[in-house]
Amino acid sequence: MKTDAPIRPQVSLRPIRRGVEALPLLLALLLSALLWAAVDIILAHEKERELEHGYRQLDYLRRTFQEHSHNTLTTADQILRLLKAEFEERPGTREFSEFRRALEHSSIFVQLGVIGADGELQWSNVPFKQVNLKDREHFQVHVDRDSGQVFISKPVLGRASGKWSIQLSRRLNHQDGSFAGVAVASVDPQYLARFYQEVGLQAGTVLGLIGYDRVLRVRVTDKETAIGQTLSDGAPLLRALHQGSDGRFRAPSSFDGTMRLYSYGQMPGLALSVVAGFDEAQVLAPYQERARSYRRITAASTAALLLTGLLLWWLLARLRQARQEVEAAHAVFSASPDPMVMLQRDPGGHFHYRYFNPAALTLAGRRAEEMQHHPLDQVLTPEDALRRQLMLEQTVRSGQVQEAEQTTTYPSGERTVRWTAVPVHDGSDHISHVALIGHDLTQLREEQRQLWLSDAIVAQTHEAVMVTDASERIFRVNPAFCLMTGYAPEEVEDHSPGLLASGVHDAEFYHHMHQALQSRGFWQGEVWQRHKDGHLFACLLDISTLRDGEGRLTHYVHVFSDITEQKHLAEQMEHLAHFDGLTQLPNRNLFQDRLCQALARAERNGTGLALMFMDLDGFKAVNDSAGHNTGDRLLVEVARRITSVLRKVDSVSRQGGDEFTVLLESLNNGQGIAETEEAARRIIAAINEPVLLDGRSFRVGASIGIAFYPADGDNVELLMARADAAMYQAKARGKNRHLCWTPELAPGEA
């Protein structure tokens, strides 16, 4: 008895050895790789030869420049030695005419001179004005000791000659060996470079003469000559000089960034080194041209090889294309993670399951025998079977591919699948089968629903939300964020949160923040941020990290709460607690705190201080006649005048009403009383000046009582009591005056 058809198409295919047909292409690839490898080896050797040739030329140029510079400086030193010998043999001479004649037409020397022990220029081969050079480096180095060596200075601008020069100097001694002065030769640094500028240097070439002090005496390029440049501590040349007296290296220039080949060497007997450099691009230009030519030829050869290999491979592939397509279809059908079903249409228009892959069985939650040859309504619920039947009929009627997303109830549960129905012809125009290819969207739709819900929650929250990725680039903000910062989403997305940085917090603050995020996964604190319009605002910031299922960091979630108003309110409350609301002077509490601190400082430093109690004379009459508003404005002006006649370090306080106190610190015990009384007189004089308010002139006076530390008391209560007593005595004795406390003012205490 014949059995039913198999569950899935059974295709008996004998594997074809793909290696045979791919052999021509593999051979072409291998030959191409060998060809390119050979070219790369040749080019590497060519490059090495080109660089070595460049280095040899560079060594020659450097040695030439080194010999030229060494001869020039040695000649200058020989002149110095002769001048030193002449001076020390004839100490009294001030005329060295033979040196003046010898240097008359010299292009090397800017000036030759003798500096006396007092630093005054005593003789020069060129006319000069009297000038003192004792602060110059080339003078100072010889004052304390005689090294016996020539000193070569940094480039300086001569005070006598007015020209840039390098100073070579030797110490001059009296017959007893004591310091007699300095012989100095000023060498024109341009002379060292002039020859090379005249003959012309190759583009990008550089020559330099550098001292052990990192200062370039001269730097010559094909475009310019620079004098006195200083190399940074990490300059490649300095590292090279530390490794040996001469050598080669390759590095970008510290001045123009050009990558160069360098040759360097130390100048014998002198604290100088010479460096020469070629632009690497110029050195390798011939090599690069040859390399391009080689690569063009190699590319053409490679293309020919590959085209030949591809042609042979294509011819072999065509021989097995039909079988390969069948095999591929079978593999896709069987291994696809998406459900695939082939349904057969019977003469009555009903559809039966014919073939299906494992993914379709998994989706349906059934065994193969429960689906094979069964109609739709025996596998699906009646409602789902009807929807599926209608889709299949539409495919047959139109003869075109149909798509539909359907939510179907299976034994495994409810699944949402996008089905694609493809009509299959039987060799004629008759459609005998329909292929269904599904894509399970259940998880995607659930994730979309969750994402929509999350987005809705974030969008509706009143707190600003900013989400960044693991590299801290912004990719999502909510409307509250835009309202708080002034930025639109497109202005911040893919930017760093640093665009909100206020500049208030230092690097250590952010370092602690990142440490907390790494160790605990969250951070909370107050942060100052910058609005788009530039103003700063304070916020309470919560940052949390998000990680995927494998524990990898994926996002940071920042939640902002604007607390600017709360902070301003707290600051205002703090200010009101310590300052007078009318005059903005410290109030009684803050003044007493400052007085306590001042007493502690005075005791620690052994200095004195003075405390003034002050009451305005005639203020009540102004207040009663002109009103409290005018009285308040008068108090503000009085406070300003008191402050204006005192030192910045002195403290002024309004105690209440028309009473003020003044604290003078750091008084000299010998002159403190006089200084304080002078300050009191300035205050009274300033207050006595008329005050013009609303076209009316008002005049008040001041009675001031003074107590001194330590003479009149060594604690706050005693000083304040005695200053207050002195103030009332000043009022009693005629007002508008100051009075220092004495024991007679308080007989009970004396």
TrEMBL record:
PROSITE patterns xrefs: GGDEF, PAC, PAS
Q: Name one Pfam family in it.
A: GGDEF
Q: Which GO terms describe its molecular function?
A: catalytic activity
Q: Where is the PAS domain?
A: 457-492
Domain GGDEF positions: 607-743
Query: Transmembrane helix: present as a keyword of the record?
Result: yes
Q: Which domain of life is it from?
A: Bacteria
Q: Where is the PAC domain?
A: 523-575
Q: Which InterPro entries match?
A: Biofilm_reg_signaling, GGDEF_dom, His-kinase-like_sensor, Nucleotide_cyclase, PAC, PAS, PAS-assoc_C, PAS-like_dom_sf
Q: What is this protein called?
A: PAS domain S-box/diguanylate cyclase (GGDEF) domain-containing protein
